[in-house]
Amino acid sequence: MYAQYKSHDDATLSYMEDALCCSDTFKDVFLLGGAGKKAKAKANALRTELVKKQKVDEETNAETWTPTKKRREMNAWRDYISHEIDVSKEFDADFDFPKIHMMSHWVEQIH
Amino acid sequence: MLNEVLRRILQPLTFNHNPSAKSRYYNVPCADGNFRRCKPVLAAWLADCPEYSDLHDLKRHVCFWCECPKNELTDYVPPDKQHPWWDHNLSRMLSDANTKAANADLSLRHVHRGFNVFRHIPCIVSDLPKPDLLHTMQIGMLEHLQKWIFHFMKTHKRLDKYNAIWLSVPAYYDLKPRNKSYEEVSQWKGKEMKEMSQYLLGVVTHSLRGGSPAQCPVFNNAIECT
Fold first, then answer.
1. Which chain A residues are within 8 Å of B225, Cβ to Cβ?
2. Residue B76 in 3-state DSSP?
3. What does each C-alpha distance from B28 to B8, B31, B33 come to in angstroms?
């Protein structure tokens, strides 16, 4: 909103600087959503690999598992895969793109 | 090709073409038939990030104002701790030298080799880019922020509430009534983003109301960041 002001004085520029600083402090909360193409591709590769392992596990134990046990195991696998995907995305995600950095120069450029 | 086209367009400003350009003043024929001593200076050039990278012969995903390392783009830099501005004179000298060491240095600095017309005309190349509300904020950061919020709402199972509140924002002053939720719009325009920035924080805040004690700190952080 501050960036859209048609004119600025020292006070509005300092508000903008404070807002930027505050936003930077809390931006990690959106880290999963900030996963880029590379992080998503890596997470998808991990998902494929884990699904393969899940199938192998299912086929190996097909004869010994009761239907209830099988359902429980599959649920556990699903949670495990989902958790691992989130961890992978969070690990690889970052906010390293020029536009987020350009905001640091915004106030200086208006000056 | 881009540099060749720019070279031809900006040729009257180059030092080589007009030696008196060194003093930055030369005679220019004006519309009234008289000649005047003029000092043309290239002062600003508005473009989006990739275009700036091409114009300045920098590699992609590099700040065109300062020499901030690629892996530090995410960090907020306070005004008093900014990285040094690009030294385009050094880039020109390295490019002209065209030695192995110079090329390696250029590559390390994320600068492409070759002729760049901006480095041959009287202007401060690092000062050409100006704050660009449309590309940096409206269809830049706001679009990123929207995606992050969308993903956040989906993860915390608040997307339905978010969409419902989004659609219920009433028409007021220059706000038009909404009939599509965020994900139903295939492409956002700058004007729509500008409108959206007026109610986004309110929609996010209301969507994240009433979380469990464990969710509250996370939700508060999301609101603060927005």
1. 22-23, 25-27, 29-30
2. coil
3. 18, 10, 10
Question: Per residue of chain B (226 residues), what is the pLDDT tens digit?
Answer: 888 888 888 877 765 655 555 566 778 889 999 998 887 778 888 888 888 888 888 888 888 888 888 777 877 777 778 888 888 888 888 888 888 888 888 888 888 888 888 887 777 888 888 888 888 888 888 888 888 888 888 888 888 888 888 888 888 777 777 777 777 777 778 777 888 888 888 888 988 888 788 888 888 888 888 8
* β-pair type (B26-29, B35-38): antiparallel
What CA–CA distances, in Å, run from B173 to A7, A9, A54, B138, B196? 21, 26, 56, 20, 13
Answer whether A107 touches B (CB < 8 Å): yes
Q: What residue type is B95 in one-letter code?
A: S
Burial of B223 (0-12, 13-18, 19+ CB in 10 A): middle
Yes or no: say if B24 and B18 are a contact pair by the CB < 8 Å rule. Answer: no
Chain B partners of A4 at a C-beta cutoff of 8 Å?
133, 137, 194, 197
What token pair was written down for B176? 């038009």
pLDDT one-digit tens code per residue, B22-73: 566 778 889 999 998 887 778 888 888 888 888 888 888 888 888 888 777 8
A 21-80 residues with CB below 8 A of B?
Answer: 21-30, 32-34
Domain ranges in chain A are: 8-110
Chain B residues within an 8 Å CB radius of A32: 151-152, 155
Which pTM does this prediction carry? 0.70
